[in-house]
Amino acid sequence: MKLYLSVDMEGITGLADHTFVDSRQHNYERGRRIMTGEVNACVEALVQHGATDILVNDSHSKMNNLLIEELHEEAVLISGDVKPYSMVQGLDQTYDAAVFLGYHARASMKGVMSHSMIFGVRHFYINDHPIGEMGFNAYVAGYYGVPVILVCGDDQAALEAEKLMPGVKTVAVKETISRSAVKCLPPAKVNQQISQQVEAAMKQIDQMKPLTPPDQPLLKIEFANYGQAEWANLMPGTAIIEGTSTVTYQADNILEAYQAMLVMTELAARTTFC
């Protein structure tokens, strides 16, 4: 059985603020070790319950955070940037299911370090339906017919997952106090809960439905300021909605919409304060 893991960092237990997820900050190395341990707990549980082929995609920032020298021996790791499909690189129709670890709530929502790709994004929309990284990644999985069976992250990410994908198993590894303060479970307890929920998720894998994306989706990205919209609008095929900082792109399918989102957010990130 083939399983795919997309692993972000903001939703890992104990990681409360940017000092744990920014490679320039003093808590980052601690964050990497905790992140790798959480992945190992998930991989071990998946192996115990029938997974024979496990691909782990490091999906945070420059995507080189996981410590391969400490990674579970049954996992294969995708590490580094640039990736054509970023947080879902390597995912295709050959996988039986996907697991999202270390996930966070979408931009403008309550949650620990909540955002959508870059901090300049207020909202992503697919056909006027607001989504975040989790939703976009689940749509790509759904394009390939792959269900997401487990999401682990802060309590707000768990709520978002349950609304987005009814029946999905979740582990809330920490409780939001504010965007940079959390009430955390220790890794040993989190790892135990992940193991339990992996078992439950694997038992219902045949009942889980993929999140099917719409055909020819309209992507809209609302940015924090007009300068970011101007940068994003440099991509051919985009348009700024008059009187807003929202940029649109009509895609042929969700894969094209996903790559358009990557290009638009990378361009928008060039915007300076002055």
UniProtKB/TrEMBL annotation:
Domain of life: Bacteria
Known EC number: 3.4.11.-
Protein name, as recorded: D-aminopeptidase
Organism per entry: Bacillus safensis
Residues involved in Zn(2+) 2 binding: 8, 60, 104, 133
Active site, per annotation: 115
InterPro entries reported for this sequence: DppA_N, Peptidase_M55, Peptidase_M55_sf
Name of one Pfam family that matches: Peptidase_M55
Taxonomic lineage: Bacteria, Bacillati, Bacillota, Bacilli, Bacillales
Enzyme class: hydrolase
Gene: dppA_1
Binding site for Zn(2+) 1: 8, 10
Single annotated GO MF: metal ion binding
